[in-house]
Predict the structure.
Amino acid sequence: MDTNNSPSQSADLKKGVDVFDSAKSLQKLKLLAKQGDAVARSTLGRMYATGQGVQQNYQIAAKWFKLAAKQGDVIAQFSLGQMYDDGRGVQQNYQEAFKWYRLAAVQGDSNAQYNLGWMYNNGQGMPQDYQEALKWYRLAAKQGNTNAQFNLGAMYATGQGVPKDDKATAKWFRLAAKQGNTNAQHNLGAMHAKGQGVPQDDKAALKWFRLAAEQGLAEAQAAIDAMYAEGRGAD
């Protein structure tokens, strides 16, 4: 069974970035940023991080993100956390990543909540703490974060921080699978094939295996082949 997705890289750094198609517009934005406007600072950070309208420069991106993050801009806080997490534009520092993720997570950013949960789950940047991991995964999962939904399912499947619970595992895998998470689709298919936490149902198993296989998951295609070899699920 696939478990424990990696930290989220799904935050759209381009979200909210206005398209500046002239040097004059960019200069106006820089002026606002220098005057202390947090949104302008965060926007400049995203532009330099993505190379949108300017030459990509992670060091300059980190500078603007840090200024905006200190003013409480949630996107800047999450983005700065990512930069410390990955060592882009700054020296890699998991404790700093944790600090900025937490500030964004408290403000309700689901990607930051997920990443905070992942760090607690894996003991990265702080001592491993499954209860804290569950807390932050749940907050992110309730907002529809598919990676958090998957990892909650995985924790119930393995009994990390909670008693093993096949029904809860299936619940969270199903929510993630419906959003297109391939590992969740594969795992939910396997649960239907075995009747584990859900009714045994070969057709449902094949349905979820096919969805994962269509996205390129080799294990799912192998599971389909194995079922047909056993004469299961054939019309």
Q: What stands out?
A: Residues 165-235 form a domain with the Serine Threonine Protein Phosphatase 5, Tetratricopeptide repeat fold (CATH 1.25.40.10).
